[in-house]
Amino acid sequence: MINLFNKHTKINTKKIKIEDVVINLQQNNISDNINDILNNGNANDVMKIKKYKYNNSIYGLVHIRLKYFIKMRNYNNYMSKITEKATNAFKISKNNSNSKKIFIFLDLSNITQKNFSTKFIKQLSMKLNNEYKNTLGLCFLYGDISFIKIVWPFIKLLLDNDTKQKIVLLD
User: Fold this and answer.
1) Fewest CB atoms within 10 Å of the CB: 18, 38, 80, 107?
2) What are the CA-CA distances from residue 147 to residues 58, 78, 114 (Å)?
């Protein structure tokens, strides 16, 4: 496992390639192709459940694509949707690997000020930290590295060290 952050919680230079994750998702999800995973979609596609192979076992993965995100005053609906998707991801993990681990793929590609909310990221970070700390396999981050470097100081304040160690940058 190559972590995004070193012991001082700065961004490391070692990265996992996005192509490797996409190939993994294509091989383990019959209907997915590269366009479905990274490009095509609409507002209903903010969150999808996928299967992800890790250490020769299949786990549930919640793919959150923020380019389809809509800013709101209240994110309870999104948080409920994440809980629903995580529950389904847990079922995939239990059925395929007899595990209570899930993976998160936070896709920050093609986001703008219009579809980025620090309030939502704060709520998502708190949810990962509080509800999924012991069940999170890895949380993949994908997107513009300069943007990730800008938001990371804010996000790292919200996460405990165990959760920080499970965040991986996709190159």
Assistant:
1) 80
2) 31, 22, 14
C-alpha–C-alpha distance, residues 66 and 113, integer Å: 11
State the pTM of this model.
0.80
Residues in the chain: 171
Q: CA-CA distance, 125 to 159, in Å (whole number)?
A: 7
Check if the beta carbon of residue 100 is closer than 8 Å to that of residue 87: no
Q: What residues does 14 pair with on adjacent strands? A: none
Tokens standing for residue 108: 């920050």
What are the structure tokens assigned to 107, written together?
A: 């896709």
Nearest-5° Cα angle at 50, 15 to 30: 110
Flag whether pLDDT at 130 surpasses 60: yes
Residue 149: CB atoms within 10 Å: 11
**pLDDT computed for residue 170 by the predictor:** 84
pLDDT at 91: 96
What tens digit of pLDDT does each residue of 58-90 get? Answer: 999 999 988 888 888 899 988 999 999 999 999
> pLDDT-based confidence at 151, cuts 50/70/90?
confident
- Going by C-beta distance under 8 Å and a sequence separation of 6 or more, which residues neighbour residue 22? 34, 37, 38
